[in-house]
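Hi support team,

I submitted a single chain yesterday and got back a structure, but I'm not sure I'm reading the token output correctly. Could someone confirm the output below corresponds to the sequence I sent? I've pasted both exactly as they appear in my results page.

Thanks,
R.
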Amino acid sequence: MAPECSLWRLVPQLKPKSADSSLIVGDPICNLDSFISHSLIPMADLVPDPTPTTLAVCTSDSSQELVSSYPPLDYMIPNAEDHQELMVKMRKACGWDKGLVPLWFEQQKEGSRVMAIFYLPDTTTAVGMGGVEMQDLEHGDKDVADPLTKRGCVVSLFLYKKYRGKSYLGRMLEICEEIARQKELKTLTIYGLSKAGGYEKFGYQTFKMEDREYSGNNIMNTRFLQKTL
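Hi R., thanks for writing in. Yes, this is the structure output for that exact sequence:
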């Protein structure tokens, strides 16, 4: 179910789309050398444009406005029937976690995760995906996500290579943050390999560094960042 928020209403709501190969565009192949983690995007490829477009959107309080300095994107809260195939293709392009997509839909149904697919405005061109996790079910780390302390985590963030370096990451994060606010979260976290850098420009600050297990039983030193919403 789409979040009940003014941002969703102001960013044009797209009709459900069938998942077909035409939505997969650009050169999306990525691996651990080109990504800073299984969930984050390499910051070297994502330097915000020096003169980004200004877009006014509403926060959850429709009497206030949040001025975005990033180019506009539409987004959709996906459902398994219409979007599972597309999301699997994105995870294949990313290089990992394709087998977890059905589980993510189950978690979304249960209320522990909200996913989003991002589109170029008024088109059926998908540029990437992401989501917000309200509970760290995989590792049980309450510093990452915990409903009791209203902490959530940006997860499964992916942007096709063709669209990197165009300021879209900032807009994707803004949408994830608005989704988190609609879930009444107070803090949003994000994590990646210890060499991850650049998220400070989006207001995130490192709060711990420790080892974390990734897909394939890989233990890697990880940087954890957070932002107060």
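A quick pointer for reading it: The chain has four helices and nine strands. Let us know if anything else looks off.

Best,
Support desk
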